[in-house]
Design a protein that fits this description.
The protein has 422 residues and is α/β, with parallel strands linked by helices. Helices cover 37% and strands 14% of the residues. The longest helix has 17 residues. The termini are close together.
């Protein structure tokens, strides 16, 4: 089954993207969303949606935030700093001072995960706690709540902000993308879920390559290929930190413009980061700040750009770090994989030396953009960017250029070895 294409902003599948329902809501309250890593993997989570709608908010993922400079700066900000957590002795949000700026720390996760975050971060545990009484039961019908008074993160923020700064409301608008997500998920369960185990006959898509080529050609002047690399720790490392973006590159094929930014790590550098990124550790540490990266990107990007990615990880990580990307995204990995699978299945058995059944089972993952470029026979241009991200960007531009030509790499040239990569 082909991977679902995710929106880089809301991380929902593109067919159920809720970005069109998000309305920016400026607040004087600084909202700091601290998300447990397990909650990040929940497809129907609400913290990211809240972050997209609240310009004066910060979203960070992790367990120990004691070394996170952005969180430390937010907690040390002047004014009233408090954590939204209904523990004994918590103040009602209505008691917060109306004449001082408020920094509100919100822990995102199940109740047990939120308690764990508080326990692992003594600096947060000593902050004054605030609580509230919900005006209505939770509308989070697609996720079970442990008690009637429990609500989702975005619902809690809508309630609390309405109390803290009613003059900037109504904050019920914050819930519009949340309600859209819940409604669509319920519709899927009720109308689509019943068919998920039915085996429908596979329908070939004649002309898929030409359709993709026409789509890319129509948007060619707006296409911007992007790649990134991160400071990422091994999954089982006991000192593991959440990944953070340290290298961001882009290329606009229509004009030849190229963008590169190195971002200094905000956390300790993982031992394998230099080797994986193909950049010297000193080069990474000498990178600029997040703010410098964002300002430079704003000068390069255009409002009507169409972002071309290979997978969604680095684009999503960039958005999480605060980079603004266009809502229109083409995941070329998804497009290329679907196209090549279709063409491989259409080959006669004598061409690939496999039975149709075996060829249908050859549907693993085409993991790297370099492998796809080799499979297509694409020519990767030399770009003035460095590291693994630069090499992958070059391959991505090559794949994009090849797929934009409707008659490139016809199915007949696919060998049995090539099919085995699909």
């Amino acid at each position: 089954m082909a991977d679902r294409v995710l929106c880089a902003r809301c991380r929902r599948p593109q067919q159920v993207c809720v970005c069109g329902h998000v309305h920016p809501l400026p607040t004087r309250t600084r909202v700091v969303l601290l998300q447990h890593p397990k909650e990040r993997k929940v497809g129907v989570g609400t913290a990211r949606i809240a972050h997209l709608a609240l310009p004066n908010s910060l979203l960070r993922v992790g367990l120990d935030f004691s070394k996170d400079p952005l969180v430390r700066a937010a907690v040390a900000a002047p004014g009233s700093v408090c954590v939204l957590f209904p523990r004994r002795g918590a103040l009602d949000v209505s008691e917060l001072p109306a004449d001082l700026p408020v920094t509100l720390v919100v822990l995102d996760g199940t109740w047990s995960l939120a308690r764990k975050l508080l326990r692992l971060n003594p600096a947060l545990a000593v902050l004054p706690a605030v609580a509230f009484t919900p005006r209505r039961p939770s509308q989070y019908r697609i996720r079970r709540q442990p008690a009637a008074m429990c609500v989702s993160t975005i619902e809690a923020l809508a309630e609390v902000l309405q109390v803290i700064e009613p003059e900037n409301g109504p904050f019920d608008r914050l819930l519009e993308p949340f309600r859209a997500m819940v409604d669509r998920q319920e519709r899927f369960v009720n109308e689509v879920g019943a068919y998920r185990h039915r085996r429908l006959p596979r329908v070939n898509r004649p002309g898929r390559r030409a359709v993709l080529a026409a789509r890319l050609a129509a948007d060619w002047s707006r296409l911007v290929c992007v790649q990134g690399d991160s400071n990422a720790w091994p999954r089982r490392d006991p000192e593991r930190q959440p990944p953070e973006l340290v290298h961001w590159v882009a290329h606009r094929p229509a004009t030849g413009e190229t963008f590169q930014a190195l971002v200094a790590p905000r956390r300790p550098l993982a031992s394998a980061t230099a080797a994986q990124t193909e950049l010297a550790a000193e080069r990474i540490r000498a990178g600029g700040t997040i703010e410098e990266w964002q300002r430079a990107w704003e000068s390069f990007a255009r409002r009507d750009d169409v972002t071309v990615t290979w997978g969604s990880f680095y684009a999503a990580l960039a958005v999480e770090e605060g980079l603004v990307l266009p809502q229109t995204v083409i995941d070329l990995r998804h497009e290329a994989l679907a196209l090549l699978r279709d063409e491989a299945r259409s080959l006669p058995p004598s061409t690939v030396g496999r039975t149709p059944d075996l060829r249908s089972e050859a549907t693993g993952r085409l993991r790297t953009v370099d492998a796809c470029a080799a499979l297509l026979g694409a020519t990767s241009p030399e770009l003035p960017v460095e590291g693994r991200a630069g090499r992958r960007l070059s391959a991505l531009v090559g794949v994009l250029t090849a797929l934009a030509s409707a008659d490139s790499a016809p199915a007949e040239v696919l060998t049995s070895a090539a099919v085995g990569q699909l």
